[in-house]
Amino acid sequence: DVMCIQETKWGGNAAREIGGGYKLCYNGESNKRNGVGIKLSQKWKDNVLQVKRVNDSLMLIRMKGGLEMVTVISTYGR
User: Fold this and answer.
1) What are the tens digits of pLDDT across the range 46-72?
2) Residue 26 and residue 4: Cα distance in Å, rounded?
């Protein structure tokens, strides 16, 4: 239902529908290196409360998961 992606090499930060009921949130400073993303299924994409893009190697998403808060962090070391 949730997948973290590293080395996307996509510049900018955005969230977009990518088909099949999935949504992709990503962040990158350049289209030549680095970049992270988090892919969400239909089950989770409607429960997103916060997307925090720190830099091109760290981002997090907070979601409502029933009575609890779920935090997913996508990161990698350079």
Assistant:
1) 899 999 999 989 999 999 988 999 999
2) 10
What per-residue string of b and e applies to 4-23 under the rule 16 or more CB within 10 Å gives b? ebeebebbebebeeeeeebb
36-40 and 12-19: which strand pairing?
Answer: unpaired
| Cβ–Cβ under 8 Å, residues 23 and 2 | no
**How many whole angstroms from its chain centre is CA 57?**
11
Q: Mind giving me the DSSP string for the chain?
A: -EEEEE-----EEEEEEEETTEEEEEEES-SSS--EEEEE-HHHHTTEEEEEEEETTEEEEEEEETTEEEEEEEE---
What is the pLDDT, as a whole number, of residue 77? 81
